[in-house]
Amino acid sequence: MGVTLAMLCRAALCVLLLGFARPGPACAEPTEAERMARWSDLQHAIFGDRVVEDAGDLVAIDAPARAEDAAIVPVAIRVAQALAPEIRGLYLVIDDNPSPLAAHFLIAPIADAREIATRVRIDDYTYLHAVAETADGRLYVAARFIKAAGGCSAPASKDQDLARERLGKMKLSIADRSRPEEPINVKLLISHPNSSGLQMDPVTRNYIPADFMQTLDVTYNGQPIFRLESDIAISEDPSFNFSLRPSDPTGPGVIKAEVLDSSQRHFSQSWPVPTAAQM
Amino acid sequence: MTIPRRAFAIVASLLLLVSASSRSETVPLAMTEVAAGVFVHNGVHEEASSANDDAIANIGFILGDDAVAVIDPGGSAREGRELRAAIRARTDRPIRYVILTHVHPDHIFGAAAFRDDHPDFVGHAKLPGALAQRGDYYLHRLRSTLGDEASGTEIVPPTVLITGRLDLDLGSRRLILWAHGPAHTDNDMTIFDENTRTFWLGDLLFVDRVPVIDGSLVGWLEQLREATAIPADRAVPGHGPVSVPWPAGADPERRYLEAVARDTRAAIKSGIGIANAYRQVANSERGHWLLFDEYHPRNVTASYKELEWE
Fold it and tell me: How close does chain A come to B70, measured CA to CA in Å?
């Protein structure tokens, strides 16, 4: 196959989305002022009249400036050490996606909010905004511009049989725990198409129905670490990196993940966390 | 015998029409006869564009005593028509089969040019599913790249589906078709011509142009192991020269895929994220391949996503 994603996805998407997502001329690049106005609208829609302060160095988004594959763009939200213990919510907004609020993490006290990472679909050159919410209701926003396009309608599932067989299965890996005073770093993979509803079946001329993860609850010994409320912007086979600081860092524990998707399917899986000495 | 004047006039004007349209549109594709009766058109090593009509893959046909089999009708209706003209410049035998080696548009979007021949369109059992998922997306992309040059290009679904193996008889010539497990895509087919021991691999084999991993990296290495056992004298790659010796012609591809697998596993193990992994994967391969920077990073992303489940 021989067409660059960057160039062609964009054009294809305009055709796909023109009908229902984007008024005005096809593919006209928004001006900086229009982008600012869009964020202002989104901020109002999500946070109402609450004050949203510029995060300065307190919050940052880590993402490639130009994505190699717009359907799998890794994004990490970082929070400064000083602020991290106060964080109770993290919002990830992809301004120019059809459904901009990509993720809302509800962060529990045992989570280490210094970094949480996932992979998202990005539909068009866009700003990403990360908003961190503290226990006492302050909001801090950080922004990052990213060049990627076509991620929402790009065909996924390279191996369709494998995707069906593996639906709902999860994989959890825990990084080396040689130092019990350090947080436990966890990587969680969930096998799920997380279909965007923007991929079309040419035979029926219908869009393939969206089928995505709505909530993900992750607990440690029954205590919440975080809950994610999510949407079609999370990539196929959702992936999360997060950390936690259990109250008893040397004791044994169990991490459990539970998923509820938009087809009302429920998946859950548990993993023992070895004590630092066992690793 | 006298021909009624009116009938003569009609025939003459029809002939004029046909020759006029063929002059203005359909120039037969340049073909190389890589073995007796096996004709290959050499695709250019470029991205699809309106200048090349998406004629970027190796495509062609095989002549039997009774019939013709097309192997990949090309990247656009226009390229399909030019391939058909190249066949008709050599034979009037019926075009009985159009073999669609896999879902990618540069190989199969020329199929509409052969509809009036009423051939069997032969594809992997998983090709219809892949077309349902991706066909329309590919068509939009092609139209936006090629513009008017894409006109007439349509999705033609396969009419004969194969799992395992299927033999086709072209008249004193047997072709053996295999449907493979996930490799380059999840719907790859290869064709073996017994008479000349020519093995047509489609995109299971890339030479010179960097392979595109759009199925399964691990699966591809497996399928390649099996394919190298086929006793062929030469292979036709989906991209690269029209013919390479077999199995030696697969060595560079295997080396690339093994390097990607080894280095991606190492990156996952050492906790390097999916965004940065490509910087440290298979760097030794840079310089060996055309379009490396266009496709290699996405190959690594795809491989990472596959291998992180191991």
Answer: 19
Q: Does the N-terminal peptide bond of residue B182 adopt cis geometry, omega within 30 degrees of 0?
A: no
Put simply, the answer to whether A162 touches B216 (Cβ < 8 Å) is: yes
- Which tokens go with B276? 């940065």
Distance CA A70, CA A126 (A): 12
Q: Measured between CB atoms, does A116 come within 8 Å of chain B?
A: no
Model pLDDT, residue A22: 35
pLDDT tens column, B145-174: 898 889 999 999 999 999 999 999 999 999
CATH of B23-249, one of 3.60.15.10, 3.40.1550.10, 3.40.50.1000, 1.10.760.10: 3.60.15.10
Tell which wins on pLDDT, A189 or A178. A189
Find out whether A174 and A274 touch, Cβ atoms under 8 Å. Answer: yes
Tokens representing B119? 């051939």
Answer yes or no: is the ipTM higher than 0.85: no
Which chain A positions have a beta carbon within 8 Å of B46's beta carbon? Answer: 2
User: Which domains does chain A show, CATH number per domain?
Assistant: 5-278 (2.60.40.2470)
Q: Are A196 and A210 in contact (CB under 8 A)?
A: yes
